[in-house]
Specification:
Number of strands of chain A: 6
Low-confidence stretches of chain A: none
Structural class of chain A: alpha+beta
Oligomer: homotrimer
Strand order of the largest sheet of chain A: 4-3-1-6
Chain lengths: ~120, ~120, ~120
């Protein structure tokens, strides 16, 4: 068990985000629409990156707005979340396997896994 | 004292941000105006999230632009700041008690708290 | 060598960013153009911050979109990168010396620096 530490959670793909916000379906639909306004997918030809043969330049921008990673404190083996905080993975290109890295560091405390429940 | 470590500072509310920038009043007013342009509060009906009875969908967006958290290095008990870096809390909905989590991890060095000043 | 840890990389200037994305020249040109659309440099008089005698308010905004810092996991002495992840420094004002802070924390493993190659 980690008594006191930090947890890093990051997207491993550069068109994706890991972010913390509300678990509310309407909000997530709002995010999609809002991000599309800030960095429209079309016309794909307006982005230089898309001359490489890809069409996902907009996804690289959306990911910067939403962020690559979150760092969350750990106390006594639990993530220190605020009342509505939840971790989400957002993929803005949509054509890859999702891969998330989770790294936990901190002071470990020996736990007695073998003891029977009392 | 922490000899070498990291400090996490994060907002505990999902319509708020912790960010590092300049302590200049004009800039902070600029941020407010700029964020209002990127994610306008009105018309509140254009956001699906607001159908839940809230009217703060825009605040959830503003918080993503400004970020949830900062991580700052610690050396010999002090935050490693650049020349103008300061930590700010931004609340974009404005109706909640501010709550910030601060977590410091690293190698601790024993300090002699009991010694009298010389 | 760090067996298991975290690396913080942050810009020390508040008009600059450290971010992780693709090493593709077209994409970086797209970022510049996109950020200029989100926070135009001109007219400089529209930003209150610029009344201080500076003309870089837009750079303070661009930096918030792209982020101040990244945190990257370390395992067995290596950064845990996804397949295309690379760390970049972006300066949006352009008039300062670049300064980046790198802080690595974690469990150290003794390495035998003295042994000759076999």
């Amino acid at each position: 068990m980690i008594k006191r530490g930090l947890t890093l959670v990051n997207a491993m793909h550069i068109t994706a985000s890991v972010f913390i916000n509300d678990d509310e379906r309407g909000l997530h639909a709002d995010y999609e629409e809002w991000l599309e306004g800030l960095a429209p997918h079309e016309p794909v030809g307006k982005y230089r990156h898309n001359r490489t043969g890809e069409d996902n330049a907009d996804a690289h921008m959306k990911r910067q707005v939403m962020g690559r990673e979150v760092v969350v404190a750990v106390t006594d083996g639990r993530l220190d979340f605020g009342p509505w905080e939840q971790i989400f993975y957002g993929e803005f290109d949509g054509r890859r396997r999702k891969r998330v890295l989770v790294k936990i560091i901190g002071e470990q405390v020996a736990t007695d896994h073998g003891s029977p429940p009392r």
